Amino acid sequence: MSDLVLCSGGIDSATLAAQLSNVGETPELCFIDYGQPAAGGEFRSVCSIAKNLRMSVLRTHVAGLDVPDKGEITARNLMLITLALAMRPSARSIALGIHAGTGYRDCSLEFVDLIQKVLDFHRDGTCRLVAPFVDWSKADVLALAIVLDVPIELTHSCESGDEPCGSCRSCRDREVLLAG
Known about the structure:
Helix content is about 40%, strand content about 10%. It is α/β, with parallel strands linked by helices. The N and C termini lie far apart (about 30 Å).
């Protein structure tokens, strides 16, 4: 059971939410605006996905962070998990749609295992980190999205702004992925 799904509005988190919905779960989709350039587009996508899946949205805003315009945001998933737990201290699980192949340390099984140890320490083993795609490729996630009939057109992948720029890594990856 997942109480919260960290949701950026992208294909990965939308697919995770759809997968949970497919097995009868209705977690809250947790969106955190931490000053990322694409926050507006991401939030619109999260709301559309939530409406499509009949899930609610939990939202917060964090100010004062030094967020790059594009590329890796150091410790982003660590921050998001910590904030999600602070927003819902009684959550029994927090799910995130990280997958293999990114090269980011906070998208690895090692990261998941380490954060689970922190959650176990802090919550006496009562909160589980759920990352079912951690050893999947992005293509594997897309294949599941297609099986689950995830409305890809509702997702937002651009890291540079509210509208797809077509040139950031996320836009380029999405274009290649969807081209098949």
